[in-house]
């Protein structure tokens, strides 16, 4: 039953996946991972309170397993509660201090909240994480704090050796694109695609939609910046179809709509992109920093409605940052 549920989740059919996981948990109520998977399906359908209760049950069964904490961080992230997501990710890091994905998630959320100095301090304490991950995250922070010139300087310090991994190579390519280095972005994309661990299926994998991620977005953006717009369309078409299907089958988290906004913006379909971003914001999207500075929504930047929307999200992020700083005794 659990395997059936996982297969259905991979097809973006969360209600049917939930049914399989629920039946599995009734047969074996002490199976920790089934509760985590139920949490994911409930999150995908924006049934956030039930999702959190299910992840809490998973932690009761095994408080030493990182997935109970990651599940709760993803629930909070999917509902736009960045402070809560940071709290759960910090708890997960206490169990898995060397996990580069957890570190990247925390940096991502801190930068979204305008807390670049806190993100930098986080890296200073991350002694268990590999040097390449630290370098990539320092480059992201440099850009957030000081702009493209600082980003380029940080990128020159990164040494992506053979075996760096497709995810890291693609991240470096994204940063070069953000810095305006389209040729370097294309070079790193090519290296990522030639890497043995490159997963083309990530482009339309619904597991990542509620985290507002699809590998199709950076790949298509790099192709478009390199003058290969036809190739970008070939990449974004399947993503948009997958997003529509996921929505039709019950997914409703904001990541579905922020991804749709990015895809339409890259295709210069501005009204469709704005409508999707409005829906994302109404459902908890907090990505105003990346929207303003990363290349994916660039075609919207002259729209007054886009600017007004970002201002509202900025204000919400500033309030969250102020609360976090007050709680930590670092209020500005």
Summary tags:
332 residues, 72% helix, mainly alpha
Architecture overview:
With 332 residues, the protein is mainly α. Helix 5 packs antiparallel against helix 6. The mean pLDDT is 95. The chain has helices spanning 2-10, 14-27, 32-44, 48-61, 67-78, 82-95, 100-112, 116-125, 131-146, 148-157, 166-178, 182-194, 216-225, 229-248, 254-266, 270-282, 288-293, 304-328. It is built from 18 helices and no strands.
Task: Offer a quick outline of the entry.
The chain is 72% helix and 0% strand. The chain has 18 helices and no strands.
The secondary-structure class comes to mainly alpha
| Tally of DSSP helical segments | 18
Shape: globular
Strand content: under 5%
Give helix % range. over 70%
Distance between the termini: 52 Å
Number of strands: 0
SSE pattern, N- to C-terminal: HHHHHHHHHHHHHHHHHH
- Average pLDDT taken over every residue: 95
The stretches of 5 or more residues where confidence is low (pLDDT under 50) are: none
Major sheet, described briefly?
none
